Amino acid sequence: MESPAGSCKHDLFHVIHKVPAGDSPYVKAKHVQLIEKDPSRAVPMFWAAINAGDRIDSALKDMAVVLKQLNRSEEAIEAIKSFRHRCPQESQESIDNVLVELYKRSGRVEEEIEMLQRKLKNIEEGMVFGGRRTKVARSQGKKIQITVEQEKARILGNLAWAYLQQHNYGLAEQHYRYMLLQLDL
């Protein structure tokens, strides 16, 4: 039997290393990714978690991030497209965020723009943040409050950057100006 002090150390380990507790396929994959730092070995373990139905949304997003780190963004995009339908509705927005980054990394600017425009439309229709005006997000490991206006400005800035990549300077300027208006609110 583990002593209470041993249990506390065990829990602290998971908090410090941001690894969930347990021995499920997803937990094992996270351990390989974050503790053993073996992304190549973590990928098939995330696949195993997805196939086992273990935290599918988290496993899919984490696997996509690992594939991106391994310069396998195209594979990550296809995985998300193939399995996102098995993820809960509340995780779709964060899956979209991962997909935008993958499109950017892959140079798939048209698809990046399409996804960003869809995200912008969702904001304008009030379909983000679960109907609330703010959400808690992570930025550089810290929890921060983000307003709908800040999220809209972020997406507009990303859209402007994507249009710059296409040398569409007029649309880029238009989106940057609109972004600045959002930040003045």
TrEMBL record:
InterPro entries: MS5/SDI1, TPR-like_helical_dom_sf
Keyword Coiled coil: yes
Coiled-coil segments: 99-126
Key words, A-Z: Coiled coil, Nucleus, Repeat, TPR repeat
Gene3D superfamilies: Tetratricopeptide repeat domain
Main localisation: nucleus
One Gene Ontology cellular component: nucleus
Subcellular location(s) per record: Nucleus
Protein name: Uncharacterized protein
